[in-house]
Amino acid sequence: MSNFDLVVIGGGPGGYVAAIRAAQLGLKVACVEGRGSLGGTCLNVGCIPSKALLTSSAKFAELKHLAVHGISTGEASLDIAAMMGRKDKIVGDLTKGISFLFKKNGVESIEGWASIPAPGQVLVKNGAGETVLTAKNILIATGSEPTPLPGIDFDETNILSSTGALTLSEVPDHLVVIGAGVIGLELGQVWSRLGAKVTVVEYLDRILPGMDSDIAKLAQRALTKRGLKFQLGRKLTGIEQTPTGLVLNLERIGKDTTEVLEADKVLIAVGRRPVTRGLGAEALGIKRNDRGFISVDDRFMTSVPGIYAIGDCVPGPMLAHKAEEDGVACVEMLAGQPSHIDYNAVPAVVYTDPEVASVGATEDDLKTAGTEYISGKFSFMANSRARSSGETDGAVKILATPEGKLLGAHICGAHGGDLIAELVLALTKGASVEDISRTCHAHPALGEAVKEACLDVLGRAIHA
Questions:
Q1: Active site residues
Q2: CA-CA distance, 451 to 362, in Å (whole number)?
Q3: CB burial string 126-145: b at 16+ within 10 A, e below
Q4: What are the tens digits of pLDDT across the range 100-153?
Q5: Where are the alpha helices (DSSP H) in 228-317?
Q6: Distance (Å, rounded) from C-alpha 430 to C-alpha 433?
Q7: C-beta atoms surrounding 103 within 10 Å
Q8: Is there a cis peptide before residue 444, judged by omega within 30 degrees of 0?
Q9: How much is the pLDDT for 1?
Q10: Kind plus residue range of the DSSP H or E element containing 90
C-alpha cells in the first residue's frame, strides 16, 4: 500500500501537467500510465509526431518552388525511414523530458494500467503484478482514441487511424481521408506533399466543422491549390478490399445517388471518443453522458466524491492545451486556491499550410444566437511581410459587439497558430478592437494583419 494526496490516472498533457502542478503545491502525487512512455496520445501518436511530419513534408514541398527565389536545386529524393526516425527521436526526447520533470518535482511515475476498485483506491496492474495505491483524491485523465466507423475496423495497414497514418513506410499512390476535420486535413497534407494523390471525403457540405465558415472556405481554396481534392456531402457506406486495393462506396447526401472511389489506403478521421473502459466507472456509479464522457461539476468532481476527471474524457473541446488548463485548475482548487477557465477563450489551431486558427465566437454562432455584431477582415495579400515571404493566402477576421468589444477572431494564413495568441489574450482580458488597433505592431510583420482587421471593424483600415 502506498499513500498519496493525489493519484493521477493517465500521463498525457492533462495528467502530467496536473501531477506537476499538484506537486508544486505541496501534494504527494503519483501518476499512473500504462503506455510505457509519458505524454499520452498528443506526444506519442498525435500532436507532436504529426507536426514533425508536417515540418519535414513542408521542406520537401518547398523545394519545388525555390526557382522563384532564384535558387536552383537538383532532383530531390525522399527517405521516409529517415523522416520517421527524426519524428521518433523528437517524441522520445520529449517523453524523457517529462520523466525528468517528474523527478525534478517529486512526482512518482508508476507504469501500469489503473482501475478504481473503490473510492480512495487505485489498482495498478503491470508485468510485476498488482499494486494498490491509496489516495485522498483520484484524478482521471485517460484521454481519447480515434472513433471507428460502424462495420469498418482499423487494421493500421490499409484502413488507418491517425496512429497508422503516422507510421507508413512508403508514400501511398492514393490516400482517401474520411473526415475534413483537423486530423484529416493535417495528415492528408503530409502525404500529399510527399507525392500521394489525396482525396478528402466529408459528410457535411464544408470542411472544418466548428470553425468560422468564411475562414473554412479560404482554407479549402488554399488547400485545393496545394493539391488536396475534396468530395463534400458524401457518406462512406462501406469499404471492400480487392486484390488491387480498396473500393469505397459513397452515398451522396440529399441525393439518391451512389459513387465508387478507389484507393490503396484509407484514413478514417471522423473524430475521437473518450477512453474510460477498464476504470471500473460503472461499478463505482461514476455518471457519464450519452456520448460516454464523464460528467463533472465546476470543480471537475465526478458524481463520486474524491474522484475527479479532466481533458478529453470529459465534455468540452478535445484539445491538449484545454486538458492542461483543466488539470491546473482542478488541482489548484483541490489545494484550496481559486482557479477558473474561460472555455470561450480556448484557441483551436489546424497546422496545415496555410494554418487555420480560431478563438471565441464564429460568425455562424452569432447569427444563430441572434447576437448583434460588427466585423472586419484583412487579407494577407495586402500584408507586406506575407508578400515578401510568398505566404499571401488567407485573411484575419475579427468579430466584435457594436460597441467594439472583441467576440471572436479567426485566421487562415501563415503562422496563424502564433498570431492567434494576441487575440486570445485580448479576449481573456476583455479588450476592445480599439485597444488592439492602438497597439503598435512591428513592421513588416504578419501581426500587422491583426491590427488592420481590427481597424477594418472600426471602418478605418489603412492598407485595405
A1: 443
A2: 19
A3: eeeeebebebebbbbbbbbb
A4: 999 999 999 999 999 999 999 999 999 999 999 999 999 999 999 999 999 999
A5: 281-284
A6: 10
A7: 11
A8: yes
A9: 55
A10: helix 80-105
